[in-house]
Amino acid sequence: MLKKHLILFVFAVFVQFIGFAQSNFYDVDSLREIRIYFYDYNWDYQLDSLYVQGDNERILADLIIDGSLYDSVGVRYKGFSSVSVNRVKNPFNIKLDYVIDGQDHDGVDKLKLSNVIQDPSFVREVLTYEIAANYLPSAKANYANVYVNDTLWGLYTNVQAVNKGFLNDHFGNKYNPFFKCNAENLDVTPGGENSNLSNAHGNDSLDYEPYYALKSNYGWEALYNLIDTLNNYSDSVEKILNVDRTLWMHALNYTLINFDSYIGYGQNYYLYKDKTGEFNPLLWDLNMSFGSFRLTDASSIYFSGFDIAQAQNMDPLLHHTQFSVSPRPLLRNLFLSERNRKMYLAHIRTIVNENFANQSYAVRGQNFQNLIDTSVQNDTNKFYSYADFIANLNSPVTLVTADCPGITQLMDARATYMNNYTGFSGEPTITNINTSPQNFILGDDVWITADITDATEAILGYRFGDNMAFKTTAMFDDGNHNDGLANDGVFGGVILNSANVIDYYLYADNDSAGVFSPVRAAYEFYNIQSQLQVGDVVINEVMSNNVTSVTDASGKFEDWIELYNTTSSPISTSGLFLTDTLGIFQKWELPNQTIAGNGYAIIWADEDGSQGDMHANFKLSNLGEQLILTNTDSVLIDSVTYLPQADDIAFARSPNGSGSFIMQVPTFNSNNDFVNSITENKELIKVYPNPFSNIIQWDSFERVEVRDLLGKLIYTDENTNLVQTSNWDSGVYFISLLDKNQTVKIIKIK
Predict the structure, then answer these.
(1) pLDDT tens digits for range 286-303
(2) Is residue 184 part of a domain?
(3) 38-67, pLDDT tens digit by residue?
(4) Are residues 433 and 571 in the same domain?
(5) Which pLDDT tens digit goes with each residue over 425-454?
(6) What percentage of the chain exceeds 70 in pLDDT?
(7) Long-range own/partner contacts, residues 243-246 (CB < 8 A, 24 or more apart)
(8) Same domain, 486 and 549
(9) Does residue 90 form part of some domain?
(10) Cα 460–463–468 angle (5° rounding)?
(11) 494, 529, 564 — which closes off a domain?
(12) What average pLDDT does this structure show over 578-601?
């Protein structure tokens, strides 16, 4: 996972924001032009028919994006309620690589074009995604003028797809369990389950398929486990659910009155299980935020909908304090914890203060309207008048079934309501955060202290890399935790056996409210880092000719490099670089991955970063070359020059982590010493050369047997010390010197 950050070594402290390499195609202040040229004159009839039949097949078209032409893209309608065969302006789902493998525009291979049917302001979806991106992984959105066969079809919102590319950008992998949580048929009757995670049906995926669409190759068992734990063992849910990120999702939905979501009828979100083993909820379909959708079964009061005044004053703990006709365990069961409720309200406070109390949202909304003003006027297929467009930023507009509130009308009143909500204010303050020792090294116990006023409890959250979940430990003001005097307002907490990289945040609360530092935690966090020493982590094994040995997550036999942490402390790879080109020491920057003490990490050398963040931007030569591991200052951490390799033969340190390199059977992500257990005294045997090509010999005449990896007898003879091997296949063999009762692994190379 790529990060936008500064590397500040040794006693450096800063707030780190999780930024990602994303296409400029979704620049929110840009207006795109997209032209679709269908091959068939009756394209609309074909698309209508596919939609009515529930068929996800596509029809072919050419596509021009901002002047760039793409052949043979696949087009279908997207969505449900926004689509109608009686409508001209329907939403489009366009797949650029439908026919031509690998075809994309600036890294984007799928377009999601929404027709803005439920938003007279044209602002809701784009503005909500922009706000959400500050607090959790979120799609991007902007605007596009869409033409069909050179006829202007209208102004659309252009929303980034939540797909494998999105997952790779935000989570550094894309093959873990992944679900779209939208019921096939939305059930708004009392007791309707939809995608609310309320019922564990057992372990038959057919019982879940009406509510959850599996988007990965596997994952049903993980979903069963999540549902079961959430409903029956909620005290353990933090082991398999990113609770903080879930609280952020709820905070955004409730603050922005986005009820076409989990809090309305249990729909319109995704679930992805990241490399920490936790499920992450992901927002989706935000076109009816800011009160455009006003239905929920959270209370009998609102079962038939709620008006604008009720939206302005909607209780953010409604699903906890009121009976839900359909269970909402992702809300109710999490809110059983008083601390979770305080953390959730702290997140709402941050959203309100950063976007609504300061009126920045209104400024952004006006900026968007200014950007698209001419396009809205030119859109003859829009669902509302130009006057409605101008008015709805601030004033209500009448829809078919209800009034659509003005965005500022709703949110200014809502900010006032939240500022007076019990638990919203009265929080502690956190200032003067310090770390010691400032010049910490790998394995040190690191103390974090801070001035915290009006707090009854304080918590330190920390982790050692992106592939680790945040852990928490208590902070104390008792004079015994590097905190000065007891009850002096200075709290201290310790991180034991630290890594070279520490991400951390603080949280404190009292009887009234809670507060985070930084306030966007844990999506943002503080970071301290020290330099690794030579030998802390080593290149342990290299495989440059992986033919049938082991596959990556995509099922491909790619070359790989194994790193080994020689210490007992966790090590983060942040700030390390790997290269196969002498003089270019920062060719590929390793992601912020944690290698456990005496643990391993695999880097795939395949030039394919789209597969995940542990895929290097270079390949290995099976003829041999040099690999160099350096830090950000180009200081050498380790290097190795490996020899030509036969198929499925590795070049590995023996003994593991410290020895010289030898050719051997690969020990992928594990101890290299495993293959040496075939003999207890291999030093008595002098077999050479090894690896060999056309001949192999040893010191004295012996009775000999040679067998391959499967145990098949390849050669046998008596009273010899030399074997001609030119007709042997390359690979691994075992030569037994029977008189000495010893066996040696030998390797034939081309």
Answers:
(1) 999 999 999 888 887 888
(2) no
(3) 999 999 999 999 999 988 899 999 999 999
(4) no
(5) 999 999 999 999 989 999 999 999 999 999
(6) 94
(7) 243/334, 243/340, 244/343, 244/470, 244/521, 244/522, 245/136, 245/137, 245/280, 245/281, 245/523, 246/281, 246/330, 246/334
(8) no
(9) yes
(10) 140
(11) 529
(12) 93
Whether the pLDDT of residue 698 is over 50: the answer is yes
Record the tokens describing residue 33, joined without a space. Answer: 């032009």
**What is the rounded average pLDDT of the residues 136-149?**
98
In a domain, 264, yes or no: no
- Is 507 found in the same domain as 440? yes
Residue type, 286: L
Q: Name the helix (H) or strand (E) containing 736.
A: strand 731-737
- Do 559 and 648 belong together in one domain? yes
User: DSSP string spanning 82-106?
Assistant: T--TT-SS--EEEETTSSSTT--BT
Are 503 and 621 in the same domain?
no
Dist. CA 200–CA 227, nearest whole Å = 6
CATH code of the domain in which 583 resides: 2.60.40
Q: What are phi and psi for residue 460, nearest 5 degrees?
A: -110, 120
State how many domains the chain has.
5
**Bridge partners (DSSP) listed for residue 659:** none
Please answer whether residues 614 and 608 qualify as being in contact, where contact means their C-beta atoms are separated by less than 8 angstroms.
Answer: no
| Domain, as residue range, for 364 | 360-419
One domain, residues 496 and 389: no
**Cβ neighbours of residue 180 closer than 8 Å, sequence gap 6 or more:** 162, 212, 213, 215, 270, 284
**Chain-centre distance for alpha carbon 385:** 40
Residue 261 resides in a domain: no
The answer to whether 738 and 702 are in contact (CB under 8 A) is yes
Locate tokens 């709402």: which residue?
348
**Measured distance CA(557)–CA(622) in Å, rounded:** 14
Tell me, yes or no, whether 704 and 628 share the same domain. no
Determine the angle formed by the axes of helices 360-378 and 124-132, rounding to 10 degrees: 140
Residue 740: predicted pLDDT: 62
The verdict on pTM exceeding 0.90 is no
**Do residues 41 and 160 both lie within one domain?**
yes
